[in-house]
Amino acid sequence: MPIIHAIVLGLVQGLSEFLPISSSGHLLLVPWLFGWDDFGGPDGDAIKKTFDVALHLGTFVAVLGYFRRDVITYVREGTLLLVNRKRPTTTDGKLAWFFVLSTVPAALVGAFFEDAIDERLGTPTIIAISLIVFGLLLGWADRMVGKRQLEQFGARDALVVGAAQALALNPGTSRSGITMTGARALGFDRDSAARISFVMSLPVIAGAVLFKTYGAITDGIPSGLYWPMVVGIVTSGISGLAAVWGTLRLIRTRSFTPFVVYRVAAGVLVLALIATGVRDGSA
């Protein structure tokens, strides 16, 4: 894999993991659009998954670094809530376990349907349609008046937003986008919706990285992929940190409309390329 490809894919992963535009969809669309074939051959799928692990590791470090103080508080208070039942329950302690609860729906769906998702979803046509449909859904939810704060996040909210997160296993949906949509629909303000989405991503990304890293270690890192992986990790980490900071800064004064417009435009462009025969929609 050329280093420039690793840089581009690292930027794509870092930005699109936290912007509500779908990282998995863009990681498939960018090579398709430019005609890259870095993961061809009989072991292509395994190599691609190994590289994806590297990119997700970078974004995990980025969001963990940004929310490090919150994470330390959640881990401490959540642990104390579990081991010391006589201690008064704190808001942070409850939030910690609600965030854990929110990961259950996606974990169950992924465990039982991962192969079916990999085989049947992820084509450019489905990604384009998903970008449009779930982008419009985000726009609809964002028009609702939301005043609830992060501290009001409860068990019901965790299950509802967690169920929405399971939809993100379909490339093109966007994990951050659908969880922000769910949180906005439940009445949370934009800043709280984004923070819920970002903190929820930590156990999900960590679980995916640990699970896939085991497979990568078992299979071994393919020859020639070591440095592209290192570059991809660094690039996705830096761009991911910028995306988290930029998203939170943007939505404090503006709506999610720019992301909705981008998603619809990108989806229409992909469908146009397919309709005109420039690119194959089933690739």
From TrEMBL:
Q: Which reaction does it catalyse?
A: di-trans,octa-cis-undecaprenyl diphosphate + H2O = di-trans,octa-cis-undecaprenyl phosphate + phosphate + H(+)
Catalytic class of the enzyme: hydrolase
UniProt keyword terms in alphabetical order: Antibiotic resistance, Cell membrane, Cell shape, Cell wall biogenesis/degradation, Hydrolase, Membrane, Peptidoglycan synthesis, Transmembrane, Transmembrane helix
Which molecular function terms from Gene Ontology are attached?
A: undecaprenyl-diphosphatase activity
Name the membrane topology term. Multi-pass membrane protein
Top-rank taxon of the source lineage equals Bacteria
- Which biological process, per GO, is one annotated for this protein? peptidoglycan biosynthetic process
Q: What is its EC number?
A: 3.6.1.27
Is Phosphoprotein tagged as a keyword? no
Record flagged with keyword Cell membrane: yes
Q: Which Pfam families match?
A: BacA
Task: List residues traversing the bilayer.
Answer: 95-113, 125-141, 193-214, 226-248, 260-278
Q: Which InterPro entries match?
A: UppP
Q: GO CC terms on record? A: plasma membrane
State where the protein is found.
Cell membrane
**Role summary:** Catalyzes the dephosphorylation of undecaprenyl diphosphate (UPP). Confers resistance to bacitracin.
Q: Which family does it belong to?
A: Belongs to the UppP family.
| Additional record remark | Bacitracin is thought to be involved in the inhibition of peptidoglycan synthesis by sequestering undecaprenyl diphosphate, thereby reducing the pool of lipid carrier available.
Q: Which HAMAP family match?
A: Undec_diphosphatase
Tell me what this protein is called.
Answer: Undecaprenyl-diphosphatase
Question: What is the organism of origin for this protein?
Answer: Ilumatobacter coccineus (strain NBRC 103263 / KCTC 29153 / YM16-304)
